[in-house]
Amino acid sequence: MTEFIAPAFSPAYPEIFLAIMAMILLMLGVSTDKEDYRSISRFSILSLIAVGMVVIRLYEGGVTTFGGMFVVDGFSSFMKVLVLFGAAVSIGMATRYARRERIMRFEYPVLILFSTLGMMLMISANDLMALYMGLELQSLPLYVLAAMQRDSVRSTEAGLKYFILGALSSGILLYGMSLLYGYTGTTQFAGLAAAFESFSHGGVPLGVMTGMVLLMCGMAFKISAVPFHMWTPDVYEGSPTSVTAFFAIVPKIAALALMARILTGPFGNMVLHWQQVIILLSVASMVLGAVAAIGQRNIKRMLAYSSIGHMGYALSGLCAANQTGVQAVLVYAAIYMVMSMGAFAFVLMMKRKDRMVEDIYDLSGLSKTQPMMALGMAVIMFSMAGIPPLAGFFGKLYIFQAVVNAQLYMLAVIGVLSSVVAAYYYLRVIKVMYFDAEDEALDAQEDRGLNLVMMLSSLSLVTFILVPAPLITAARLAAETLLR
Amino acid sequence: MIEALFFYVFSTVLVLSAMMVISAKNPVHAVLYLILSFFNAAGLFVMLGAELIAMILVIVYVGAVAVLFLFVVMMLDIDFTRLRDEAQKHAMVGAITGGVLLGELAWVYSQWMGARDALARAAQTAPQATKGLTNAHALGQLLYTHYAYLFQVSGLILLVAMIGAITLTLRSRPGVRKQVISHQLDRNPADVVKIEKIETGAGVS
Q1: Is the ipTM value over 0.95, yes or no?
Q2: Is B106 in CB contact (< 8 Å) with chain A?
Q3: A171 close contact with B: CB closer than 8 A
Q4: Is A28 an 8 Å CB contact of chain B?
Q5: Mind spelling out the 3-state secondary structure of chain A?
Q6: Nearest residue, CB atoms, A198 vs list B116, B142, B153
Q7: pLDDT averaged per 10 residues, chain B (length 205)
Q8: Within a domain: residue B84?
């Protein structure tokens, strides 16, 4: 054992700050007499933004600390900023909904902070153990959040289902890790890569393959790729809508980042071996995401399947296993996040006579009664379907470019075909809003925050074509640091 | 020789009791078998020279977790026979999946071939076996230095678990009369007790 030298804390300042803020807010929430949800949630948003600034400010290339378990590079900074932004917006979106649905407890934003902290640790993980710790810190608050609405059977069921399946997937993940450790004698990503180097000529032992596949299964569960997607529609439907918004917007980005780091880092030499697994996951997710959503009437379930499909596209970018592929995934993740923010802001605004409605056909004739709202949603749906010139189209374009460059033609063809099929159910929402007979009108919007989120989201989807450079450049720089 | 004997005794009992955990008819027996399997695992740890982990296994798992299980099983009114019948419906599928997995794993382990310097690499992070270094000491040296980061994060995870448990179960019921000792002590007989002299035969007005 080498002599111990105290690690450098400076690369982890954002995480340390966020952890301390979360604990302070927890204590504040406990000690104030009336549960002061509003100020706690405001402070959480402020601290998320502050952490985001620190992440950008501390941007440096490739530093590891804590004995090589924790890495900060351009890739991690990019992903962390996305995650922090998404978390801040989803706390902001929840305020009014939480009051109406009586889940306005101060633990809500605090749990989101802890989950976000877990995601940041995941993104920065450079060791299998650190990865697992981050993953657990990320998912444990999610289980609680899903079950937050204690009076609702569906919410409790969603929480329990998520918890049990999450525990199962963690078990699979751990089993894979233990196999990898058994074969290589190390848990560090750098050490794993070095150990696999010695295999790459004489063929990879079966145990390493098994370990790698189990590890990928565990992570595929977290991003809900088919065939590990079963929990998604039920959990999305059962959880309180503001929590569902958080589920859709943020954790998948973090899990995607983790997957990109692992597949290009320690398994970078074994592309041929993991590529077929990821292609399978990707094709299955794209096809199921396109086909299964057709029969859904509940808009939350529809968005759940849509997110499964989107994850399929993102995974197919990873299959390319090169810098353009990773860059395309990063761009896609950012665009996906903006689209789901808008879509869920819309779902949170769907209410009639002060009751939340979730059926797609409740939107009949929305263009007459709420023209702005209908227009915003139409833009988001067009973008999700990948209609040019909206941002969603470019996200898919970059992905398919990378896939074609890597000569995975079949994958690209399946991707394009399934996106055509998927367009049906996105366009159906628009058709219901614009061409169906007017139904009883939805309530007028009193929540300006949600309206703003939706409008900004659809506006940025429209204007992406004019100023694509900032996102593309940032994604390119991030992808470069990952694949150096 | 005697070590090998103990190893086989412990592992055989461990595997058998683990099988009984999932096949025992009476759930209380299942938990008792679970405790037995914990004890045998602790025995295996002692044989490896990891006495601290063995003790932790006995104290934490047997002393706290399994006993808690026992209480829960006894207190909850669950129809275990019906649960088992439900599970039996899928027994075939489960058996096939489990069998396939078992075969695959057997195949994997039969072709075991570690990386060339796996053992050396694993030894790098282990504390040196100096004389007189106890288990607890060695673990502490690792846990609070090289793995301090993981240690802190697990602390955060436990904190989140606590917050979650409280959030999901604590209900503040209105109208519950709690005993507040200081209020009770504060009470002054002069404020609350009225002594009236009642004339004989006049009654109380």
Answers
A1: no
A2: no
A3: no
A4: no
A5: CCCCCCCCCHHHHHHHHHHHHHHHHHHHHHHCCCCCHHHHHHHHHHHHHHHHHHHHHCCCCCEEECCCCEEECHHHHHHHHHHHHHHHHHHHHHHHHHHHCCCCCCHHHHHHHHHHHHHHHHHCECEHHHHHHHHHHHHHHHHHHHCCCCCCHHHHHHHHHHHHHHHHHHHHHHHHHHHHHHHHCCCEHHHHHHHHHHHHHHCCCHHHHHHHHHHHHHHHHHCCCCCCCCHHHHHHHHCCHHHHHHHHHCHHHHHHHHHHHHHHCCCHHHHHHHHHHHHHHHHHHHHHHHHHHHHCCEHHHHHHHHHHHHHHHHHHHHHCCCHHHHHHHHHHHHHHHHHHHHHHHHHHHCEECCEECCEHHHHCCHHHHCHHHHHHHHHHHHHHHCCCCCHHHHHHHHHHHHHHHCCCHHHHHHHHHHHHHHHHHHHHHHHHHHHCCCCCCCCCCCCHHHHHHHHHHHHHHHHCCCCCHHHHHHHHHHHHHHCC
A6: B116
A7: 92 95 85 93 92 92 87 80 79 91 88 74 72 82 88 96 91 80 87 82 71
A8: yes
